[in-house]
Amino acid sequence: MNDFFLSAFLVIDAILVAPFRWFANAQAGFFCGLAVLAVTSAVLGRACAAGVARVHRAKRERQDAEIKRHQDLSFSALAAKDRAVYLAANHLAQEAYGNSMALAAGRAAALIWPALLVLAWAGWRFAGVPLPLVGESAGPAVFFLPLYIAALWGVSRLGRAWRARRAATASSDAIHFPPGPK
Amino acid sequence: MKNWKWTLPVGLLAIVAIALWFEPAFADKLSDAIAKAPVGAEPGQIPADPNAPKGFLGIPGSPVVNPILAFCWAVWVGWIFSTVGAFGGVMAGVGHMSVFGFGNYAGSFKKTAPDLGKIVTDSIKASNQFLVGLSAAISSFNYLKMKRLVLPLAITLGLGSLIGAWLAQELSAGKLDFKSYQGYFGLFVLLLGAWLLYETTPAGQAKKQTAKKAAQAFEAAAKKQAAGESLDAANVGLHITQFTLSTCAFTFYGVPFRFNPLVPFLGGIVISAVAAFLGVGGGFLLVPFLTSVTQLPMYLAAGTSALAVLVSMVTSIITLLSKGTPIEWHFIGLEMLGIAVGSFVGPMTSKYFSDVWLKRLFIVLSAYVGIGYLLAGFFNFKIPGV
Fold first, then answer.
1. Is residue B10, in this structure, part of any structural domain at all?
2. Its membrane topology, per UniProt (chain B) (predicted)?
3. Which of A51, A58, A106 sits opposite B82 (nearest CB)?
4. Which of A181, B56, B268, B351 has the highest CB neighbour number within 10 Å of its CB?
5. pLDDT (tens digit, 9 = 90+) per residue, B270-294?
6. Rounded CA separation A111/A100 (Å)
7. Taking Cα atoms as reference points, which of B347, B256, B284 lies closest to residue A95?
8. CA–CA separation, A163 and A167 (whole Å)
9. Could you give phi then psi for residue B255, rounded to 5 degrees?
10. What is the side-by-side strand order in the sheet with B238-243?
11. Does residue A136 carry a pLDDT above 60?
């Protein structure tokens, strides 16, 4: 079993270290490698979170609807100056929120696990190695985290643009292909 | 402050990055503690053989956890998160302490090498917090983005959380032996179980039913009202009318609310300190605190508490790292993957389980684990399995 894990680790190590060797210059290779891993972690994390969110959809929508219903009710009670009903509805909304948060924890875990594994690998790979600009005073996390945040932001923007484009295409298709006669 | 929803998290993460910058400088703390530990083959000793297998934190002779076991346990934790709720955090702690054997290992150094035992205890605590708190903090961020918050309240709560998290880590990091941590964690689990049990009792159910009935009655009455009264547009939404050191007053939908800002400040300190000390996320305590003590609407409580959760988490991370607490990132990453898989599987399988029976199962589990940890931690009396 240990041989299996060692072999698996060596394969993963070879894959992760490859982008660091794309440039002959060590500094350029280091930043290129970290950037590639940051983007890959962000894309993989987003994909996993989207997968978990898809499976959670029915339950999440049910819980979100419950939160919204109790919230709306609490607003109506406030508007009617009925404090007792407001507190009751607010309490019910809070319970539904607790369940919704526990579901969200799963999606958050799906989002960040690749980055944590890359951080762990980079920490091991570059242990004791003087890094560009900081020497041995810092670990690779100092470079990886900002790159990862930027990659997450970029992937999020691209995803939003892609969804908007798909929605626009779908609406134009509806104009070109109207429903058949009733 | 127009782009605060980006500048805030990026700023917080920049602080974490700066803290990580100094991380290698503290690596020697663990090596020093290992060097001070007695050499031998007994529990509480470091093996003389330099080639002894290195497990948790790379300490020679420490428990070597099978990655498959760690992954499977994390799947179980994720499954609980997606079906039962917050009890997953407790199970994550049980995994680190009992299933993987880190607890016994840390406890074995109590008399022989207390420094090493305390470092391992801090690492277990930090692992729990990263696993549960980090997910909660990221989830909270979505609520923060919605900008549904009472800013003065968020600031006082956030400030309290910062102080609480810092104090807890500052006072406990490097000073807490495993037995004490286990005892307090057990007490927390027992209280959680007692609360779950109360919710299933007729009294707990009656309270919920009363709330439901009141809400339904109001809903029905509102539907019967033809057209209904129109709201004054000026009254809709949140309006802060007064904010001083002793009073925060605001109206929401025209209804006045008033609280003393010291209350959320002190609440933030206590809740964040407890969460940081035990290594659990604080969000599940902050929201009920806000809705019950300040009577804040849930619409605003989730966003307002999110800032405090983020601040508390970042403070904990920085304080732990600055204290030189070693973290097994690959282990946390593997567990995060397991939680994600468990979260994926949970909704697919939950239809085969009764919610009521699951709740009862976890009440029994929390009672067993809670009593077990309490007895083992404070009275050195072990019951099987914990």
1. no
2. Multi-pass membrane protein
3. A106
4. B268
5. 888 888 888 776 667 787 888 777 7
6. 17
7. B284
8. 6
9. -90, 125
10. B238-243, B248-252, B255-259
11. yes
DSSP-derived 3-state class of residue B254? coil
Tokens 């508007």 belong to which residue? Answer: A79
Name the token pair of B355. 């919610």
- For A78, the closest of B208, B253, B330 (CB atoms) is B253
ipTM more than 0.90?
A: no
Mean pLDDT (chain A, rounded): 84
Domain that residue B138 falls in: 62-207+238-379
The residues, ordered by sequence, that sit 6+ positions from B203 with a Cβ below 8 Å of its Cβ are: none
Could you tell me the pLDDT band of residue A41, with boundaries at 50, 70 and 90? very high
Tens of pLDDT, residue by residue over B197-217, are 887 777 777 767 776 776 677
Rounded to whole angstroms, the Cα distance separating B83 from B353 reads: 9
Structural domain contains residue B175 = yes
Residue numbers in A near B334 (CB within 8 A): 113, 117
- Span A52-83, pLDDT tens digits: 888 888 888 888 888 888 888 887 887 777 77
d(CA B136, CA A17): 32
- Asked if B333 and B134 touch (Cβ cutoff 8 Å), the reply is no
More confident call, B185 vs A129: B185
Per the domain annotation, does B15 fall within a domain? no
The reply to whether residue A104 touches residue B139, judged by beta carbons under 8 angstroms, is: yes
8 Å CB contact of A88 and B215? yes
Tokens 């993963």 belong to: A12
pLDDT at A40 over 90: yes
